[in-house]
Give the backbone structure.
Amino acid sequence: MKRFFATRWGPITAGAVIGVLAPLLVFFGNPKNMGVCVACFERDIAGALGLHRNPVVQYIRPEIIGFVLGALIAALIFREFRPRGGSAPLARFLLGMFAMIGSLVFLGCPWRALLRLAGGDLNALLGLAGLALGIGIGVLLLRNGFTLGRANPAPAVMGWLMPGLMGGLLLLAIFQPIFGDGLAIFQSEKGPGSLYAPLLISLAVGLVIGFLAQRTRFCTMGSLRDVILMGDTHLIGGIGALVIVALVTNLVLGAATGTAYVNFSFVGQPVAHSSHLWNFGGMVLAGLAFALAGGCPGRQLFMSGEGDGDAAVFVLGMITGAALAHNFNLAGAPDTVTEGVLAQVGGPSIYGQVAVLIGLVFCLVLGLTARLRLKEVKK
Amino acid sequence: MTTKVDARGLSCPQPALMTRNAVRATEAGPIEVLVDTETSRDNCARIARREGWTVAVSEEGGGYRLVLSK
């Protein structure tokens, strides 16, 4: 079994399992085409803590907690828990921030882009094309010598900090304390944040995915990066399996419940907009930031469960980015559809558009200037 | 003469990329690659094997030493 996960069937298995479980989470209550979305769910957590006050996206998503703790359990069982850190934490924090802003301009992380496609949302094609271009730019920078430098082994306690934070979040999710009139913990009463599967189901799915993804190194960004950079197809089967299995699961759920889970169109898609330029542009930024940081948002959570403090800093950057995105009106607004007719195309405000451009400049400057000679040494 | 690649502490995909560059720049080896995570160990070994090299893995100092030969 240990070998199986290391073969190309490992990522395919992880993708297929996510492809079944994510639509099931929608069946159990999560927003449509959002069975799992790392960016959206971290944004909801930011809202629940009051870091932003958008009332429709506030909920402590147990899936995120499960991802970290599931990866932690797998890493402990298989002796891969390696506390480490110290590789350009501030740069990683800012990359996480801009990755989140780009994702929220599109309205989803790479995982949700794949799940949106499996639900028939053709806007996801623009997002995925942008993601590929962003990763392609990242590959050029990597070939040019970009590096965030080395991490160092750290005392065990450092590796437990992020799982500990997630444990604290889990307690807040379970007990839902209110710290005062009009204060946290916030919980949406309408909108996507009010739609969620039962806590235990969400947590269990998160743990299963976290465990599997840690074993198989499942990474959406890495899938594309490795093909572009080295012609390495080890990971890419995972994202293919995710889309195909999620599509089939959506069709089965649609037939079983009489509610459409798949609807091929650009318009009228759940929690999405059809501003093609910004679906594309937002994900160029996200893809580039993920490539420079060495992992998609899911993978950053799994690595933080393995004890990687730098990945944890990226995650905290993403949560901060989500707070800024909603406080500064940067996130894409969904399309307005009235009686089945498109009334107004959504997308980011002018502030969101400028934020994407600032993010791209930041990533390019960092990518071109953060270089070290890491050539092999002959002896 | 042994070529040494020290990829400890580096994020994906740098260990794999350094390994690939080393095998492409070396005629016969051996090449010694040091990594500190299982992910890097597996990635570097996969890349080297794909380029037609044989890989011997041993644990060393909390990480792994890969000896590539051809």
